[in-house]
Amino acid sequence: MNAADQAHQTSLASSAYRQALEVISAVEPRIAQATAAELADQRGSLKLIASENYASPAVLLTMGTWLSDKYAEGTVGHRFYAGCQNVDTVESIAAEHARELFGAEYAYVQPHSGIDANLVAFWSILAHRVEAPALAELGAKNVNELSDADWETLRRTLGDQRLLGMSLDAGGHLTHGFRPNISGKMFHQQQYGTDPTTGLLDYDALAAKAREFKPLILVAGYSAYPRRVNFAKVREIADEVGATLMVDMAHFSGLVAGKVFTGDEDPVPHAHVVTSTTHKSLRGPRGGIVLATEEYAPSVDRGCPMVLGGPLAHVMAAKAVAFAEARQDSFRTYAQAVADNAKSLAEGFLSRGGDLVTGGTDNHLVLLDVSRYGLTGRQAETALLDAGVVTNRNSVPADANGPWYTSGIRLGTPALTTRGFGHDEFDRTAELITMVLENTQPGTTKAGGPSKAAYVLADGIADKVKDASAEMLDKHPLYPGLELS
Ligand code: PLP
């Protein structure tokens, strides 16, 4: 889009939002105010949460329509409700874009979130690998035809399957078999970690664990691992032990779409089933998708209503718009900048004495171990927030402070790269964060004892950092030209 077209689109979006807020305000002004306040907050802070981004006005506006009002359980052309022709159109376009964008054999665009996408994936793998062969052996078309005794046997078999996923403190996600999560309860689960010295994924150790445990499902993918994964190698391991390889690319799907991760680093040609969110580095609406080989497609397709509630047609429409954006050349430039900027951020910390898990990054995130500053992740996160820097605390491998207080903060570049930040701004960001951490001391409890939450940030630092951030943020405005009043 050229500059004149861009300016025209921005002016249209401005009036659309102004009018929408007026309509909302007439019913519940506090919601209109909170919505406007959120834009101001996002415009005025250094957003470094690795899982967040800024979707385009086109994506955001697509969600605010009457498509939301239609029930459409089922799949395209095969719905449990009448009158779904427009939802069929929307879902078909979104799925077509997803297939083309990722080179996938099959795309299911209904999941409401990343966790829902993972549930669909688990359920469909169980249905394909365990339920379908059992039904075939018993000569039944579906579970309703089974005797009570056969059903009970099948139910137990389904509940007796094994899942191997990356542990939370190595960077995996809760849904990869973490015991408190449903995934840890529906499967016999074991977890693989990273090398204790390098922090890197150890493929030999993973292979050894897989050989011993023999999982039905091997889950790869992560929330807080700052490195690329060789999915071809992980597929070899899965094949050797007869596991289905499921990759959760929720965090890095933007780098896959933008062709930063190709060949062995692109999970789609190697995994049987790939799940993702659509709102992180992919920069779409909040939601999830499942990509699958033809073999798994029929069971994935039954996600709704077997696992999911009715599809959100307005969100599927916004996914289609976001995927169309991600298929443009400009998205490849963006994705490469996300990865380059993460390197600049990492180097900015390392040159100032920072301690990074794995010693750096080659994706979109860095994991800074804040124990070097004598702080917990919780203390660092809140001190940074006081200075207008939004991050999230995160476990580091073998974290002594547990998953609540943690010893790290996770920082990602997708959002600020969308605003146009480049090398210099990310280096400056590392400098400002280091300044906050070096000037924060652990505080004490009210009774004067040691605290993992309390902290004291030296006077004047928060204002200094806010002023320096404002200079960068003003140069790279969020939704430039979009005015609500
Ligand atoms: N999978 C991974 C790897 C994630 O990092 C996340 C989000 O934090 C999810 C799944 C869950 O996504 P959602 O919040 O959309 O359910």
SSE topology:
Blueprint: H1 3-27, H2 29-44, E1 46-47, H3 57-63, E2 74-75, E3 78-79, H4 85-102, E4 106-108, H5 114-138, H6 148-158, E5 162-166, H7 182-186, E6 188-192, H8 203-213, E7 217-221, H9 231-241, E8 244-248, H10 253-257, E9 273-277, E10 288-292, H11 297-300, H12 303-306, H13 313-326, H14 329-350, E11 365-369, H15 377-386, E12 389-390, E13 392-394, H16 402-405, E14 408-412, H17 414-418, H18 423-438, E15 440-444, E16 450-457, H19 461-475
Helix pairs in contact: 1-2, 3-13, 4-13, 5-6, 8-9, 14-18, 18-19
Bound molecules: pyridoxal-5'-phosphate.
Secondary-structure content class: alpha/beta
Rg value: 24 Å
What summary fits the major beta sheet?
7 strands, mixed
Hetero groups in this structure are: pyridoxal-5'-phosphate
What's the total count of β strands? 16
Distance between the termini: 26 Å
Average residue-wise pLDDT: 96
Coarse morphology: globular
- Measured as a percent range, the helix fraction is 40-55%
Uncertain stretches: none
Identify the CATH architecture of the largest domain: 3-Layer(aba) Sandwich
